[in-house]
Amino acid sequence: MSKKNKHSPSKAKTKTKVEPFWQTKTLAQMTRAEWESLCDGCAKCCLHKFIDDENTTDETELKPTTHIAQGEQMSYSNIACHLLNDKSCQCSKYEQRTELVPDCVQLTQENLDDVFFMPPSCTYRRLKEGRGIPSWHPLLHHGKKSAMHQAGMSVRGKVIKDNDVELEDFEDYIVLWPLHDID
Ligand code: SF4
Ligand code: SF4
């Protein structure tokens, strides 16, 4: 009679843990699809920001700028671009955005140095500063944005559109919440 040993060791199943791309690659090494997927969709970058610049003249006031000089401070407002869908937090004209809104900042791997224009919670900025992606990021929630909205990290329910206000009155709309970050 043959006997089988119930306790004989079975073949060990070894699973290799795959590290997520944002932990193994630099921003510059990512593919286009990986880069795009990092955007959390918070839409904080669609808010109007203002820089208090001592050299501002009547001519340059409220005009777009591409730099911040040393000592200048950027303030966020709760005024959002008129093309933003403030419920989904998505651009309603994504493909034409740079034509329709010339100062729409499109962050790419080529202009990564402009990341300072992004809020502290922006995933690109977080990764550039070595802070990783936050626990509420859609990539950690099967692509869903609900954790981000619940954490209060998106603009949903907090903004007014720029075609509903006079930009000259921007000081009435300066807010601190876009600077908030968690994790
Ligand atoms: S702030 Fe950064 S992560 Fe958030 S929507 Fe804009 S680009 Fe994407
Ligand atoms: S054009 Fe679209 S992506 Fe650009 S600021 Fe406006 S809503 Fe945001």
UniProtKB/TrEMBL annotation:
Short name of any one Pfam family annotated for the protein: CxxCxxCC
Top-level lineage group: Bacteria
Protein family membership: Belongs to the UPF0260 family.
HAMAP family to which the protein is assigned, alphabetical: UPF0260 (MF_00676)
Protein name per UniProt: UPF0260 protein SAMN05216262_11334
UniProt organism field: Colwellia chukchiensis
